[in-house]
Structure formats: C-alpha cells, structure tokens
Specification:
12% helix; 14% strand; globular; DUF2256 domain-containing protein; alpha+beta; 1 helix
Length: 42
Amino acid sequence: MKKENLPEKICMVCNRPFTWRKKWEKNWNDVKYCSTRCRKNK
C-alpha cells in the first residue's frame, strides 16, 4: 500500500490528521488519538 492511500483520522485532542500505522492494524477502528501525549491529555 502506498503512503498516499493510507486511511486518515483526526485526533480528538489536537485536531490534526494522522495516518494509519502498522501497529494499529488490528484496532484501527478504536484509535482516537495520534500519540501517547494526546491520549494522556484527554
């Protein structure tokens, strides 16, 4: 899969877009935050 074709979401904390990562493959539907920092600052 090419980088341009990866799915994107908007972070609920910082409102920035972030793209799919291999480590999120199994739970992409549950991912809400772009980073650990955002997750901690809910």
